[in-house]
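Rotation project, supervised by the postdoc (A.L.). Task for the rotation student: set up a whole-complex structure prediction and record inputs and outputs verbatim in this book. Inputs entered:
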Amino acid sequence: MYTIGELSRRTGVKVPTIRFYEDKGLLPQPERTAGNQRRYDQAALDRLRFIRHTRDLGLPLADVEALLSLEGAQGDDLNRAHEIARRQLHDLRERIGKLQRLESELARIATACDGQHDHVCAVLHAFGAHDDCSGPH
Amino acid sequence: MYTIGELSRRTGVKVPTIRFYEDKGLLPQPERTAGNQRRYDQAALDRLRFIRHTRDLGLPLADVEALLSLEGAQGDDLNRAHEIARRQLHDLRERIGKLQRLESELARIATACDGQHDHVCAVLHAFGAHDDCSGPH
DNA sequence: CTAATTCCTCTAGTGGCTAGAGGTTCAAGG
DNA sequence: CCTTGAACCTCTAGCCACTAGAGGAATTAG
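Outputs recorded:
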C-alpha cells in the first residue's frame, strides 16, 4: 500500500496531479484510511506509470483514457490502439517538421545584424516581416 | 481604416483573438465609430502582423510584449531583442530534440505486434513500459 | 426600408495542470 | 502517552492563449 506521496515519488507525477487524474476518472478512487487518506495498490501504480508515459509521449488525456479502456483488448480494439499510436506518430512528425522550419527562420533572426547595430535593429524587423521567411508556416 | 473583420482577414488572427490582444494591452485601443465599432489604421495592422508572426514562431505573449516595447530600441535594448531571439532558438532546439526522441519510440510502438496479434497487445504494453525506451525523456 | 452580415460586451469553457488557504491525520521521538 | 512536524485532506482560484456562445446593436447591400 502506497500513500499518495509515495506514488508521486515512484512515478514522478506530482501529488495534486494525481488527485486531478482521479477527478477526471483516469485513476479509480483508491481505498481510504480511517482518517480519509488515500492508499494505493500496485495496480494503481502501474496505471499511473502508463498515464505518465503516454503523457510524456505527448498524447492528450482523452487518448490516454481511450488506451486505458483498451486494457486486455482483443480483435478490433487492438486495431484501435494501433490506430491511436499511428495517428500520434503522424501528428508528432508534423510538429517536428513545423518546428524545424521555424528553427531555420529563428536562427536567421537571432544572428541578424550581429556586429553592425544600425539605427533600426534587423531582429525586430525580421520578427515582423513574414515575407522574408524561406518557407510557409 | 479597417474593421476588425478586415484586420482578421488580412492577418489570419481571429476576431475574438484580436479583442483578446487588446484586452492584454498588446494592441492599443483603436478608434471607434459613432456606433462603438473598432476602426484600425495601418500601424495596428503592422503591429498585429508582428504579433502573429512571433506567436507562430512559438514565442509566449510575454516575450512578444517585450519585443514590442523595444520598437525603435537602441544600445542595450537591441541586445535584449537579440537575447530573446537566442533564447527562443535554444528552447526550440531542445523541443525538437525531445520530439525526435519520442518519435523513434512512438514509431517502435506503432509497429509493435503488427501481424501477430497475441492475447496481450504489444502496443498497450509498450505504452506502459518506459524501460523499453532507448533513451531518456 | 429591410434583411443579412458584422459588430458589440460579457461570461464561461478548453486542457492540463499548479498554487495556496485553512484544516486534519499520521509516524517517530521523547 | 504526548507532542511535533511532515504529509495529508478539500476547496477555490489561477495559469496560458485562446475559443464559443448568448443576446443585442450597428452597418451595408439591394
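Student's summary: Chain A touches chain B through 49 residues (CB under 8 Å).
Supervisor addendum: Strands of chain A lie at 31-32, 38-39.
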